[in-house]
Design brief:
By secondary structure, this protein is mainly beta. The chain has 4 helices and 18 strands. Strand 6 and strand 7 form a beta hairpin. The N terminus is likely disordered.
Length: 356
């Protein structure tokens, strides 16, 4: 019995020593990870004035954001992120009209829009990632779409108003994706998501497949994007590219086709006249196949619109002031003009975007 007690004591002592050694090693590892990790807090606020140069004061292009009359609010965007060598997260919250438009597809938003209060209405992105290796990253959660040239945050767009292609493509996806660096500037993303813009949970038990093939080089890059919704037999293929022709001149393009819905193409030209002032033009052609976007009946062949936008970006510290002129010319009379309709609409926007 004494020998058994001695052996048990020895085992207990060794186990305890091993446990605390492991705990000490884990603490050292955790401290090293903490030292290599960074926490950041960023975001933006934006507001604008909008007026039509003819037509009803409330008339606006059928594109997202920057479409309210008079002095209007954009949104407050708050982004917290913790980035480590292996793991990290991003929490991106939005407040205000632009933010509400960004999460319009949220199931909880739809359920509570007549009685606001659902916390999910303010979530623009919420995801965690794991760097399996230097070349492969897995991300789980809700993140902004990889399709298209423009984005939700006004700090990342040159023009303040947005294109029709951006407005009617997906805004966000919730699901699991893998990003892989293939070498030589090539990258690949594949993922499976809830139906487009269903951010908190899946209402239909259907899933969407998405992928992106990218190629980056000095001064530019190109990305071919693909999304497929088998339940609705829907496919969208999207190409985005951009290049710095010189230190002062940048050119970008975006083209997209969405099955039985819409097609479009846009070109972007930007010129930096100084460190503080840039001038840019955007021209977009958008074909509404079904007529559901522009309001032109499908039996008339749907309709199309050509929009031209001229913008300036004047930066003062973290503040960017954006005066903008926009002309939308549709194939049919779709813009309210008094008691009648007009096929064109000219508008002016003055926006202030502060990023931090």
């Amino acid at each position: 019995m004494a020998k058994l007690f001695t052996k048990l004591t020895l085992v207990f002592t060794l186990s305890t020593t091993l446990f605390f050694n492991l705990q000490a090693q884990e603490s050292v590892v955790e401290e090293e990870v903490m030292e290599e990790s960074t926490f950041s807090f960023s975001g933006s606020v934006d507001a604008y004035f909008r007026a039509n140069l003819g037509g009803d004061s409330g008339a606006a292009p059928a594109s997202s954001f920057a479409n309210l009359p008079g002095f209007s609010l954009g949104m407050v965007n708050l982004v917290a992120a913790h980035e480590g060598d292996k793991v990290g997260f991003t929490a991106d919250l939005v407040f205000g009209p632009r933010g509400e438009d960004a999460v319009f597809g949220s199931p909880l938003y739809q359920l509570t829009k007549d009685a606001p209060g659902g916390s999910s209405q303010i979530i623009n992105q919420l995801y965690a990632y794991y760097n399996v290796s230097e070349a492969v990253t897995f991300t789980l959660g809700n993140f902004n779409t990889f399709l298209g040239y423009e984005v939700i945050s006004p700090t990342a767009n040159f023009n303040y108003s947005t294109t029709y292609m951006f407005s009617y493509g997906p805004f966000s996806h919730t699901g699991l994706k893998m990003d892989a660096a293939l070498g030589g500037g090539l990258s690949l993303m594949v993922g499976v998501f809830n139906p487009t813009d269903m951010t908190e949970f899946n209402l239909t038990n259907d899933y969407v497949f998405g992928s992106q093939l990218g190629y980056e080089f000095d001064g530019g890059g190109a990305w071919l994007n693909f999304i497929y919704d088998g339940a609705n037999d829907f496919t969208q293929i999207d190409l985005t590219a951009g290049i710095d022709l010189t230190e002062a001149i940048y050119v970008g393009v975006n083209a997209t086709t969405a099955s039985d819905s819409f097609n479009g193409a846009a070109a972007y030209l930007q010129f930096a006249s100084s460190d503080n002032l840039k001038i840019g033009a955007r021209v977009e052609y958008f074909d509404d196949v079904t007529g559901g976007i522009l309001g032109i009946p499908a039996d008339l062949g749907g309709g199309s619109v050509l929009d031209f936008t001229l913008s300036a970006n004047y930066s003062v510290g973290n503040l960017t002031i954006i005066p903008e002129l926009r002309l939308d010319a549709a194939s049919e009379d779709v813009f309210a003009d008094g008691t009648e309709q007009s096929s064109s609409l000219s508008s002016f926007v003055l926006a202030a975007v502060y990023g931090f």
